Automatic annotation (TrEMBL), chain A:
Keywords: Cell membrane, Membrane, Transmembrane, Transmembrane helix, Transport. InterPro entries: ABC_transporter_permease, MetI-like, MetI-like_sf. Its main location: membrane. This is Carbohydrate ABC transporter membrane protein 1, CUT1 family. The keyword Cell membrane applies. It is a multi-pass membrane protein.
TrEMBL record, chain B:
Keywords: Cell membrane, Membrane, Sugar transport, Transmembrane, Transmembrane helix, Transport. Belongs to the binding-protein-dependent transport system permease family. PROSITE patterns: ABC_TM1. SUPFAM superfamilies: MetI-like (SSF161098). It comes from the Bacteria. It comes from Actinoalloteichus hymeniacidonis. This is ABC-type sugar transport system, permease component. Gene3D superfamilies: MetI-like (1.10.3720.10). One of its GO terms (cellular component) is plasma membrane.
């Protein structure tokens, strides 16, 4: 009898506690449900309807998807975004790794250097783009004057005025803005490599390059992979840097996928078209993430 | 004896050379990284005409920024409000849910955790269009509260992950003793557990602040009323000449005003930032 009583009391207390736990997680559940799950479902629904800004939406099935895949502007945007992603990821990872190796050891000045490299990453991407927009401007920016003073150019450089110029100027700004950020991630990976491994290599008489390719890179693989995933995902979604720096120009040469979605939705008010594009991008990125993450896992196990 | 000491001396010499080389290269690179920032600060103080030769220094650019569009104060207030709402909301929601998930078994526990983490898998610009429609229907479009709710949702995966780990790192005996003594869940959470997870709370708050203060695409899409613009959106409007021709001097002071708070916070709290990255990104 007595044991049943305790049992009952125990059960009541645990149901009580689970009710309270549900109450505690209710705000989170509401946010996730109303602001993530519902919009996600609505996105798919919108992509299959004709959704005017005013008036009633009507179901059109997969017609939007047919149309966007024939849209030359969207295909150009995909091509440009892929090119930008490749260039940015390669250069950014190389620069970030170089910086991380440079400040890896704690010695005089390394704390200051880490902070200096990271500081650009503390400012917003849009604001960083605005800063470089002024830097590149021949009206107020010092860059052309500087190159002219050094005797490297004869006339002002048209930084953002040609398709190639606009692309590479943006890449330079993005490296400046993100290198310190990726450096910090790589540093945490470098610090996880035990000192003994390096000591063993030194005793074996391995030089800097042998140590780097034989120890640092293989042991840093999971962190490097994380940096690659972050850079690829971030670059595929590039928007601010082009919105602010180039405005998509010159001649639509720097229009990214997200710029296209933004323009369809908020300049041309074609919400269902933009929704269908978003679904395509979403599926592509989720697939890319799954592939990349499974590659990292595999690398971890081997 | 002599051989070893010569070798030792040579090793020491090599270390000194390597250290000096790294310091010199590092300093040169650091200058390259800092120059654009220094230039923004410098040209924000040039005046009255930012292009004028020998125009001298002054706060004229900042004064013009004050009267640009709706005025700096309006945009800065909007940014501060949105960031504060996002920080408070993110911390509150993730502390409550993180505690529940770390300490109790209840129906829907795994669903909530995995569902929140799934937000990270979805590229955020893609769900802004349905969010725009939903907020419009709810009368929350053009509202700073609506914008903050969206930003809280984007912060939640990292925040919940951090807080769950922070609570799990605290020994159970800690709070179970308080619960058995009849303290009740709210008091146990407030006076026993919260002090123990404060570093996690600081990390979550820091990330939420930096991300919401710097967020661009969400306010650009969800807020169309000029008087509700946040700082970055207002500055981008200045750049496209929405308020007249481009005033580069005022633009530079805007860059300084929006960048300096983030840099100060980062320099003060960089330990938390780095630790947040180590536990949030790498193990995640």
């Amino acid at each position: 009898m007595r044991s049943t009583g305790t049992h009952h009391r125990h059960r009541r207390r645990s149901t009580d506690r689970s009710t309270q736990a549900i109450v505690l997680s209710l705000p989170a559940a509401l946010v996730v449900g109303l602001l993530f799950v519902v919009p996600l479902a609505l996105l798919v629904w919108m992509s299959m309807t004709d959704w005017p800004l005013l008036g009633e939406p009507s179901f059109v099935g997969l017609a939007q998807y047919d149309a966007i895949l024939d849209d030359p502007l969207f295909l150009d945007a995909i091509w440009f975004t892929l090119r930008y992603t490749l260039i940015t990821t390669v250069l950014l990872t190389a620069v970030a790794l170089g910086l991380a190796l440079l400040v890896q050891q704690t010695r005089f000045g390394s704390g200051f250097l880490r902070t200096a490299f990271f500081l650009p990453a503390a400012m917003g991407l849009a604001v960083a783009s605005l800063l470089w927009f002024a830097l590149y401007s021949n009206e107020v920016g010092p860059l052309s004057d500087l190159l002219a003073t050094l005797g490297l150019v004869d006339e002002p450089v048209n930084w953002l005025g040609t398709p190639d110029g606009a692309l590479w100027s943006t890449v330079l700004m993005v490296i400046w803005r993100f290198a310190g950020f990726y450096m910090i991630i790589l540093l945490t990976g470098l610090q996880a490599i035990p000192d003994q491994v390096y000591e063993a290599a030194r005793i074996d008489g391995a030089g800097w390059w042998r140590t780097f390719t034989g120890i640092t890179v293989p042991l840093l693989r999971p962190t490097l992979a994380l940096v690659l995933v972050l850079s690829v995902t971030g670059s595929l979604l590039a928007f601010e840097q082009f919105y602010v720096l180039t405005g998509g120009g010159p001649d639509n040469s720097t229009v990214t996928v997200v710029s296209t979605i933004f323009r369809q939705a908020f300049t041309l008010f074609d919400l269902s078209w933009a929704a269908a594009m978003s679904v395509v991008v979403l599926i592509a990125l989720v697939l890319a993430n799954i592939v990349q993450l499974s590659l990292i896992r595999k690398g971890d196990e081997s | 004896m002599t051989a070893t000491s010569t070798a030792a001396r040579r090793t020491r010499l090599r270390i000194v050379i390597a250290d000096t080389g790294a310091l010199v290269t590092g300093t040169a690179l650091a200058i390259l990284f800092l120059l654009p920032l220094a230039w923004a600060g410098y040209s924000s103080l040039r005046g009255p005409d930012a292009t004028g030769e020998g125009a001298g220094f002054g706060t004229e650019n900042y004064r013009r920024l004050f009267s640009y569009g709706e005025g700096l104060l309006v945009y800065a207030t909007n940014s501060i409000l949105v960031s504060l709402l996002t920080v408070v909301g993110t911390v509150l929601i993730s502390v409550l849910a993180g505690y529940a998930i770390a300490r109790f078994r209840f129906p829907g526990r795994n669903l909530l955790f995995l569902g929140t983490l799934a937000i990270m898998m979805v590229p955020y610009p893609t769900i802004l269009i349905p969010l725009y429609v939903l907020l419009s229907r709810a009368g929350l479009q053009n509202s700073l509260i609506g914008l903050s709710l969206v930003l809280i949702m984007f912060q939640l995966p990292f925040a919940l992950f951090m807080m769950r780990n922070a609570f799990e790192a605290v020994p159970r005996e800690f709070d179970e003793a308080a619960l058995v003594d009849g303290a009740g869940i709210p008091r146990t959470l407030w006076s026993v557990l919260l002090p123990a997870v404060t570093p996690g709370v600081i990390t979550v708050a820091l990330f939420a602040f930096l991300n919401s203060w710097n967020e661009f695409i969400a306010p650009l899409m969800l807020v169309t009323d000029g008087s509700r613009y946040t700082l970055p959106v207002a500055l981008a409007a200045m750049r496209s000449g929405n308020f007249g021709s481009i005033d580069f001097g005022a633009l530079q002071s805007g860059v300084v005003v929006s960048a300096v708070p983030c840099m100060l916070l980062f320099v003060l709290l960089q330990r938390h930032y780095v630790r947040g990255f180590a536990s949030g990104a790498l193990k995640g």
